[in-house]
Amino acid sequence: MEPGFRSYVVFLMAFFLALCIPRTGEAFHAGGAGECRECHEDEKGALRGSDAGSVCLRCHQAPMGTRRPIGHYSASNGHDLGAGMPPSQMTPGGDFGYLKKSYSWKESGSTQDSPGERHGHNIVALDYGYQADSRHSTTPGGTYPSSALSCISCHDPHGNIATSAYRLLGGIGYTTRSAPGMPFTVAAPVAVAPRDYNRSEAVTDTRVAYGRGMSEWCSNCHMNGCTGAYGHPVCNGAQCTNEIISNYNAYVKSGDINGKGDASYTALVPFEEGTDDRMVLEQHAKNNGTYTMGPGFGSNVMCLTCHRAHASAWDHLARWNMASEFIVQNSVYPGNNNGSPARNAQGRTEAETQKAYYDRPVTRFAGSQRGLCNKCHIRD
Fold first, then answer.
1. How far, in Å, are 14, 60, 196 from residue 70 at the CA level?
2. Torsion of the alpha carbons at 193, 197, 198 and 203, rounded to the nearest 10
C-alpha cells in the first residue's frame, strides 16, 4: 500500500470513528451519525429507558468520585451515596444526587429534617430511582405537572440548534410529549459558561456570565417567576439599586466591608449583567480568577442568584444554608462530627458542609459567618 493511500485510509477510519463516538454537551445533541441510537432504540423513537429522564442519565450520571471539567455530568450515582458521602459534581447547576440525601437531627428536644426531595427539582428518572415530587402536584407558582418533570422539561434533547440556546434550554414554543399542552412562552436566557465548569472552587470561582432573561425563562413553569421567592424582586426590570451595588462590592465576609468592586464577585451570589452581548459575556466567563468584577449599572438579581438550577445540599436548592444563622461558626464548617450546634450542622458532617460550598476553605469566610443575603443587604 502506498504511503499516501495508507494515510488517506487512516484518515477515513478516524473520521468515521469520530462520528460514532458519543460526545459531550451541545455538539453531541446536534444529531450526528449514530447519535440517535444513543437515546432511541429505533427509527420509531422508542426510548432506551423507562422514561426521558432515565435516558438522559445513561450518559449524565457519573460514578461517585468521577468528575470531568467539561463533562456534562449532572448527577452522582445514588447507590454510592452512603452516610457522610456528599455527591461529587460541582457544576453551577448542582448535583441531582442531593435529591437522594436526606438529613435529620435533634434540636430543642424535637427531630428536624431536611429530606432529599426538598433539595432540588425532582426529576422523574425511574431507572435511576428518581421519583416525582410527593409534596407538590404542580410546580410552585405554576401548573406544570410534577409527574412530567424530567431533564427534557427544561433542556431540548435535540439541540435547539437554531438559537444556540444556553445549555440547550427550551425556547418559545418548546414543549414535550409528557406535557404537550404547556409550550414555553418565554425565550431562553442569555448566558455563557467557561469551558471548564464542573470543578472545585477551593482556589478560584467558576463564573458563569449571566446576561439577561433567566428569571423570565423560569416563569415558563413558575408563573410568579419575576416576583421571586418570598416577594423578592428579580428579572430584567429589577435592576440593582446603587445601594445594592455598593453593598455587594464592599462586602467580603461578616465584619469585613472593605472590598473592592473589581474583586467582589462570588459564585455563591451571582447576578445578571443586563446584556445580551455574547462577546462581552465570553470575556467575563472565567474560572481562573481573572475577572472578578461585581455588579454595576444595569445588573439585576435573578432566581439563580440564591438558588441552583438542579439541586444543592440545602433546602429549596439554595446556594448556602438559609435555614441556619451561621455558615461558619468558631472558624469551622458546622458538622455533626465536630461538636457544632445541631441547629447549624443539621445532620451533615463537616466534610459534607464544605463540599456543599464546592470545597471552599473555611478561611474564605469569617470565623462567625452569617448568611449571604448580607452580600446585598449588609445587616451582620
1. 23, 12, 5
2. -140
Tens of pLDDT along 289-342? 999 999 999 999 999 999 999 999 999 999 999 999 999 999 999 999 999 999
Return the number of other C-beta atoms located less than 10 Å from residue 173's C-beta.
Answer: 9
CB atoms within 10 A of CB 175: 13
Residue 195's identity, in one-letter code, is R
Which alpha helices (DSSP H) does the chain contain, by range?
A: 3-20, 25-28, 36-39, 52-60, 214-218, 242-250, 278-284, 303-306, 342-345, 350-356
d(CA 210, CA 72): 19
The CB density around residue 266, as the number of other CB atoms within 10 Å, is: 20
Contact criterion met (CB below 8 Å) for 204 and 216: no
Give the contacts of 88 (CB within 8 A, at least 6 positions apart). Answer: 62, 64, 65, 66, 67, 76, 95, 97
The one-letter amino acid code at 305 reads T
The amino acid that residue 268 corresponds to is: L
Rounded Cα–Cα distance for residues 132 and 85 (Å): 24
Residue of 82, 77, 80 lying closest to 95 (CA atoms) = 77
Classify burial at 279, counting beta carbons within 10 Å of its beta carbon; exposed 0-12, middle 13-18, buried 19 or more: exposed
d(CA 313, CA 348): 9
Query: Which segment of 30-44, 87-101, 186-200 scores lowest on mean pLDDT?
Result: 30-44
DSSP state letters, 58-69: HHHEE-TT---T
pLDDT at 43 over 80: no
Q: 210: part of which helix (H) or strand (E)?
A: strand 209-212
Least confident stretch, 23-27, 133-137, 285-289: 23-27
